[in-house]
Amino acid sequence: MKHIISVLVENEAGVLSRVSGLFSARGFNIESLSVAPVGDKQSSRITLVTGGDGPIIEQILKQLNKLIPVIQVVNLSDGPHVGRELMLIKVTTDRGANDKSAREEIMQIVSIFRAQVVDATPTSLIIEVTGDNDKLHACLAMLEPYGIADVVRTGQVALARGNRK
Amino acid sequence: MQLTGAEIVVKCLLEQGVRTVFGYPGGAALYIYDEIHKAGDKLSHILSRHEQGALHAADGYARATGAVGVALVTSGPGATNAVTGLATAYMDSIPLVCISAQVPVPLIGNDAFQEVDTVGITRSCTKHNYLVRDVRDLARVLREAFYIAKSGRPGPVLVDIPKDVSNTKTEYTPANGEVNIRSYRPTMKGHPRQVRRAVEMLQAAQRPLLYTGGGVILANAWEELRWLTLALDLPITHTLMGLGAFPANDRHFLGMLGMHGTYEANLAVSNCDLLVAVGARFDDRVTGKISAFAPHAKIIHIDVDPTSISKNVRVDLPIVGDVRLVLEQINAVIREEQTEQKQIDRQAWWQMIEEWRKKECLRYNQGPEIIESQYVIESLCSLTDGQAIIATDVGQHQMWAAQFYGFQQARNWLTSGGLGTMGYGLPAAMGAQVAFPERQVVVITGDGSIQMNIQELGTCLQYQLPVKIIILNNGFLGMVRQWQELFYERRYAQTDIAVAPDFVKLAEAYGALGLKCNRPEDVLPTLRQGLAHPGTVLMDFQVQRESNVYPMVPAGGALQDMILGELL
Ligand SMILES: Cc1cc2nc3c(=O)[nH]c(=O)nc-3n(C[C@H](O)[C@H](O)[C@H](O)COP(=O)(O)OP(=O)(O)OC[C@H]3O[C@@H](n4cnc5c(N)ncnc54)[C@H](O)[C@@H]3O)c2cc1C
Ligand SMILES: Cc1ncc(C[n+]2csc(CCOP(=O)(O)OP(=O)(O)O)c2C)c(N)n1
Fold it and tell me: Could you state, in order of their start, the residue ranges of all structural domains in chain B?
């Protein structure tokens, strides 16, 4: 099962390598990882997605907690949470006569997925889509036939719902 | 007060109560060395002959005293030579602070002369490490380093100091108050409800067993442990790291458990109905096959490090906390309830144990011609009343020392358990001898291991450290040979090291006393002579070449399936 783990760390040099080093040294896998400073810039939030059975996740949480600059570790998958990921998709629209209708179809897909076109050239579009994993997969699958030049995704970020910490 | 980084280093060391630093100088460390020189008698420095030696010496000092050991090395090769010492301390949770010099800040990342990414290299073999880029952080970092090294689950901390930082001035304020790191707050006291549960389980158990480890030593908790053991009349076994916590000659003590543990200890584990793990981490050398480990037992685990709990073996009652405080809590509940009287009858359990004991699994036969290693160690134990500080290297001699030196006290046993570092013994003994100049400090080593850090004889002589070295010379990398004999059909691939220096002459070349012993009847006289000599002594005992350590649980086997020796 996948787990989304939120790790609050001191915003200091080398923290990220401590966290990623822990995963590689102990043979835990990281599916995705995203990191950015929060609030006062004194701390950073790392959100990582990992897999493993109960005892492994328990070790991961404990080992993360053991790192000196780690302030707090929360397994968001323990309760209701909202997870989001952002994807940028570059679609080629360089298809001669069909080009125009292709563009229209793409625009429809964009609106179904509540995505946005953030860049356009005569031969390409960049589409930005946010959502959970499933939604991004679905959107990508729909755009595939039009020719995808490039895709980038952030890792997941997530927050617990309601007042849960 | 405006001070340079190097001056701050010395100030902070003194502030932490450090009186001895073990190290080796080099270019990037020059400012720090200069200040150490100026500090004169206030701060002594022991110059090892290799940085690995300096680290192990600081480690031996820490194990023998309980204080934080301090090492100082230069950048690049100085730091890489320190890595084995750091990893050794890390695996055994030994509190060290290692200061490494680094190239000047503007050169970092430039492949500068003698630059390595020390913090990167040592990240996974230190409890924590720091690169100090700004002299204004230096005092705080050093104070944190000591605090982290000794608190919670202890461990080595490295502080990397660029040369220019050690030569830059800043305002220095003396330490005021405790170190406070918001992201680091080890749990010290046990949860009261868990503590009560533990006492109930101890009361209810028919066949309880204490399995205690290095954590008892690290927490200085042997008094509390003894009280509990005796109050509830519990059988007790130690890991390799736990030896000395309970006196070996007391009938409650079953000896060491695990791969080379005693028959009675391992069978007690296999048959107990309550296993109380105290500051021990269920290492694979202890558990053997996990699914067959303590199969009938409920398990209580007391450990300050939550990651140790339920890592290898699921436990029924975890208690996170410092061993000493938790044992105090447990003992208080027992006193309050006078559990001693409520005690259920454990006659049957003790009878089983006594039966296993009758096997005398450590029996060996000292014939008239060839010296047996076990005999040398037993003789040493009786000549020193089990009171000497014993440092070992790694191999058969180490296991025999664990089995045959009956430790009477904690902090007398310096051995690399987790990493199993050959070359640890001699420098570790130096560290202990520096701490306790008047005490008998003995290295039990093999002809293989001693050659890994033999250069430290030079250090012993320079500082007149009267360390006694006992080489159990079998002409083999004995422990590896044993595995080859038992599991690789006696194909002795690269384990014959009979081509060796004349150790007596080697000792003499350094200016130490060298003694050689070939015959069983000379063992006691040689030991007496060596131990009585006021200076450094190397005793070369020519022992049985192909002898094995028993009992032995084959790797991955169940504890009760141990192989017993030829005599049994
Ligand atoms: C050749 C060889 C053979 C070996 N054979 C054996 C063998 O037969 N039997 C054996 O036992 N070992 C053997 N070992 C050693 C083995 O590899 C391990 O090092 C050892 O078993 C670990 O001991 P430990 O469980 O006491 O843990 P340690 O490594 O001593 O760890 C201490 C534990 O206590 C905890 N702790 C630390 N401080 C505190 C505190 N203040 N409060 C609470 N908890 C604390 C730590 O978190 C940790 O979990 C062998 C080693 C070698 C090299
Ligand atoms: C640095 C290092 N290299 C290799 C090993 C693997 N090893 C474990 S025991 C051993 C043999 C030790 O031989 P010796 O010191 O002569 O002791 P003996 O077993 O003969 O008593 C070896 C090579 C080790 N533990 N440490």
Answer: 2-171, 192-357, 373-542
Decide if B131 and A65 are in contact by the 8 Å CB cutoff.
no
Answer yes or no: CATH 3.20.20.450 is held by domain B192-357: no
B374 class by beta-carbon count within 10 Å (0-12 exposed, 13-18 middle, 19+ buried): buried
**CB B310 to CB A55 under 8 A?**
yes
CA B384 – CA A99 distance, rounded (Å): 93
- ipTM of the prediction greater than 0.95, yes or no: no
Ligand 1 midpoint to CA A71 (Å): 28
Of residues A58, A66, A68, nearest to B310 (C-beta)? A58
Residue B51 a catalytic site member? yes
Cross-strand pairs, B371: B543
**Contact (Cβ atoms closer than 8 angstroms) between residue B411 and residue B217:** yes
Q: Which ligand is nearest to the CA of B481?
A: 2
CA distance B180 to B196: 31
What's the CA gap between B142 and B185, in Å, rounded? Answer: 18
Fold for domain A83-158?
A: Alpha-Beta Plaits (3.30.70)
Shortest CB distance from B183 goes to which of A13, A62, A69?
A69
Q: What is d(CA B92, CA B94) in angstroms, rounded to the nearest whole number?
A: 6
Q: Tell me: the pLDDT tens digits for B69-108?
A: 999 999 999 999 999 999 999 999 999 999 999 999 999 9
> Cβ of B183 and A55 within 8 Å?
no
Report chain A residues whose CB lies below 8 A from the CB of B133. 13
Q: What is the pLDDT of residues A54-77, one digit of tens each?
A: 999 999 999 999 999 999 999 999
Partners of B349 in the β-ladder: none
For ligand 1, atom 50, the nearest C-alpha belongs to: B417
Q: Which CATH superfamily is domain B2-171 in?
A: Thiamin diphosphate (ThDP)-binding fold, Pyr/PP domains (3.40.50.970)
Q: Looking at the complex, does the CB of residue A14 fall below 8 Å from at least one CB of chain B?
A: yes
Determine the Cα–Cα distance for residues B165 and B102; give it in Å rounded to an integer. 9
| Side chain identity, residue A83 | G
Distance B316 CA to ligand 2 centre (A): 37
Please state, in angstroms and rounded to a whole number, the distance separating the CA atoms of residues B424 and B416: 7
Return d(Cα B553, Cα B266) in angstroms, integer: 10
- Taking the complete model, does pTM exceed 0.90, yes or no? yes
CA distance A157 to chain B (A): 22
For B311, nearest residue in chain A (alpha carbons): A59
- CA B331 to centroid of chain Cα atoms: 27
For residue B7, the one-letter residue type is: E
Q: How far is B119 from chain A (nearest CA, A)?
A: 9
CATH number of the domain located at residue range(s) A2-78 in this protein: 3.30.70.260
Query: What are the tens digits of pLDDT across the range B127-156?
Result: 999 999 999 999 999 999 999 999 999 999
For B373-542, CATH gives 3.40.50.970
Short-list B60, B121, B126, B64, CA closest to B98: B126
Taking the C-alpha atoms of residue B489 and residue B134, their distance in angstroms, rounded to an integer, is: 59
- In chain A, residues under CATH classification 3.30.70.1150 are 83-158
